[in-house]
Amino acid sequence: MNPPTILLSVKPNFALKIFSGEKDIELRRVLPKRIDKGSLVVVYASNPLKKVIGIFRVKKINTFKLNGINKNLLRYSCISKNELLQYFKGKKYGNAIHIAERWEISDKSIKFRFKKNRKLKPPQNFCYINIDDIDVTNKNMVL
């Protein structure tokens, strides 16, 4: 059985860094229960972009203590320690989604669309989607 596909809302500045290759870790206060190594994540860049900008495959997931943050976590998630602590305020642990391969939708070799009759409301945080509802064409992309 294939790992689930997740539609994830990400702030545009962080979403763009994922697909520029700067950002290799996406931080989350709440982690989807059904996300796993190999899951596909469709990235929806929230306001003001309001569009799907790419897809990535999950390399691994880990939970970390907020009192034991290391420099690599900060560097690969493109966030300062103060920003991280503010984001996770009230939490003892954070979640890190490590990114394996990624495909940017603006790349002309990738065509992405939701198939007919599939209405999509962008999630506040994330939602599960059926891979069969997505039409992605790219000769280098193996879903």
Brief overview, please?
Helix content is 16%, strand content 38%. It has 143 residues and is α+β, with helices and mostly antiparallel strands.
Our estimate of the beta-strand percent is: 35-45%
CATH architecture: Roll
Question: Major sheet: size, sense and barrel closure?
Answer: 6 strands, mixed
Number of strands: 8
CATH superfamily grouping:
Hypothetical protein
- Poorly predicted runs are none
The ordered string of helix (H) and strand (E) elements is: EHEEEHHEEEE
Instruction: Report the C-alpha radius of gyration, rounded.
Output: 15 Å
Order of adjacent strands in the largest pleated sheet: 2-5-4-3-1-7
**What do we call the CATH topology?**
Archaeosine Trna-guanine Transglycosylase, Chain: A, domain 4
Q: What's the CATH first level?
A: Mainly Beta
Count of all domains: 1
Shape: globular
The separation of the N and C termini measures 13 Å
Structural class: alpha+beta
Mean pLDDT over the residues: 84
How many helices does DSSP assign? 3
Portion in helices? 10-25%
Task: Give a verbal description of the structure.
The chain is of the alpha+beta class and 143 residues long. The protein has one domain (5-137): Archaeosine Trna-guanine Transglycosylase, Chain: A, domain 4 (Roll), CATH 2.30.130.30. It has three helices and eight strands, in the order βαβββααββββ. The two termini are 13 Å apart.
